[in-house]
Amino acid sequence: MIFCFGASKIFKFNLEDAIIASNANIGGPTTAAGMAISQGWVDLVGPAMLVGTFGYVIGNYLGTIVAVSLGL
After folding, report:
1. What is the pLDDT of residues 3-48, one digit of tens each?
2. Of 11, 30, 49, 61, which has the maximum CB count within 10 A?
3. CA quadruple 16, 20, 26, 31: dihedral positive or negative?
4. pLDDT on residue 68
5. DSSP one-letter string for 11-67
6. How far is CA 43 from CA 16, 33, 40, in A?
7. Please, what is the end-to-end C-alpha distance for the chain in angstroms?
8. What is the pTM of this model?
């Protein structure tokens, strides 16, 4: 959350973008899309789904790599 808000401050993104990105990172694409719809930010539903799904893909591969490297 701190990373998302800090990066949005540095790159001058909207607060709504940072909130949805943080939600997609923590809760996944479904909660981020639901939050975007409930707040009326319908233009952020697509990016929320993409960022959340991308996080799942990256997280699964990194988790597998760490588990294999640790011998678990």
Report:
1. 889 999 999 999 999 999 999 988 999 999 999 999 999 999 999 9
2. 49
3. positive
4. 95
5. TT--HHHHHHHHHHHHH-HHHHHHHHHHHT-GGGHHHHHHHHHHHHHHHHHHHHHHH
6. 11, 10, 9
7. 29
8. 0.78
Residue with tokens 């991308």: 54
Tokens of 43: 């233009």
Residue whose pair of structure tokens reads 């990256």 in the numeric block: 58
pLDDT of residue 41: 95
Lookup: tokens for 60? 């699964």
Retrieve residue 4's tokens: 């998302």
